[in-house]
Amino acid sequence: MIDFSNFYHKIAKNNLSHWLTTLPAQLAKWEKDNLRGEFPSWQKVLKKFPDAPTDHLDIQSQVSVGKEGELPPGEQAKLGNLLQKFHPWRKGPYTVHGIHIDTEWRSDFKWDRLLPHISPLKYRYVLDVGCGNGYHMWRMLGEGAEFVVGIDPSQLFLCQFEAIRHFANQNQDIHLLPLGIQELPELKAFDTVFSMGVLYHRKSPIDHIQQLKAQLVPGGELVLETIVIEGGETDVLVPKDRYAKMRNIWFIPSAAALKLWVEKCDFEDVRIVDISETTKDEQRQTQWMRNESLDDFLDPQDPNLTVEGYPAPKRVVIIARNPEKRLS
């Protein structure tokens, strides 16, 4: 099983030490509950990776580990086949010893949109909620974050993250825990909290925003990214069944409504910094994600609509500040 002892050792020495009262029992339960399905076979794949020391790690302009030629051609081909065992790769892209993992999402597009607007991450403690396989966590570390924690309950995403970390420096302060936001206590320990592509999956979006707030230090920054519709402060789409073929979609607000929700949760300096249409350049099928993608989710006669007839996805980035003092 994946060993979390290094994470326990790290947080015992920092401002997350109080998390140790609940976290080990939670992760022990997760391990017990996940000794089934494909997880054991993915664990075996991780053990087959070659040791490949490298001085090349680029996490500032991309996520690239190792260089072409550092592995013999046969080992490189074997590694490519092993990495394909973790299909589908949704968030990225990554390059590992010359192997380009062309993921479904060009997650670097989103990163480039939000990076100019957020507070500098240098020396910050950062939490990425619903982090997927951790692509954005590497970019956060590349911006100088001191300690990066991601949470996502997916077995596959955890194994994909561990695959990349195997070839990078495993001693870096970047950690993915298989938990959901609802399983976190009020840590009040992170300088920046990201929630990207999560809100529309939550049955109670206001509770989600409050849970994010509970992880921030006073004065900390929230970076919230989600799907929105056109409209004013009272406009919210509640899909009857599926949205873009996704079943677990509950609320899609307008950008103005979402800003109001964040303000009602007592955040300050709430700003809409970007609204962008999701394009087929940003989300698409590749050899590393051969399932349906955005092209299959949109009306073939009108790409401004989903196949269900709802507005096609637009995504917003909202930035807000946790008050320095609790409001009365």
Automatic annotation (TrEMBL):
EC number: 2.5.1.-
GO MF terms, alphabetically ordered: methyltransferase activity; transferase activity, transferring alkyl or aryl (other than methyl) groups
Coiled coil: none
Keyword field contains tRNA processing: yes
InterPro entries attached to this UniProt entry: CmoB (IPR010017), Mo5U34_MeTrfas-like (IPR027555), SAM-dependent_MTases_sf (IPR029063)
Entry annotated with the keyword Plastid: no
UniProt superkingdom: Bacteria
Chemical reaction(s) catalysed: carboxy-S-adenosyl-L-methionine + 5-hydroxyuridine(34) in tRNA = 5-carboxymethoxyuridine(34) in tRNA + S-adenosyl-L-homocysteine + H(+)
Residues annotated as binding carboxy-S-adenosyl-L-methionine: K91, W105, K110, G130, D152, P153, S154, M196, Y200, R315
Gene Ontology BP, a term: tRNA wobble uridine modification
Residues annotated as transmembrane: none
Keyword vocabulary terms for this entry: Transferase, tRNA processing
CDD domains (alphabetical): AdoMet_MTases
Subunit: Homotetramer.
Function: Catalyzes carboxymethyl transfer from carboxy-S-adenosyl-L-methionine (Cx-SAM) to 5-hydroxyuridine (ho5U) to form 5-carboxymethoxyuridine (cmo5U) at position 34 in tRNAs.
Family as reported in the entry's similarity comment: Belongs to the class I-like SAM-binding methyltransferase superfamily. CmoB family.
Protein name: tRNA U34 carboxymethyltransferase
Species, as recorded: Motilimonas pumila
Gene: cmoB
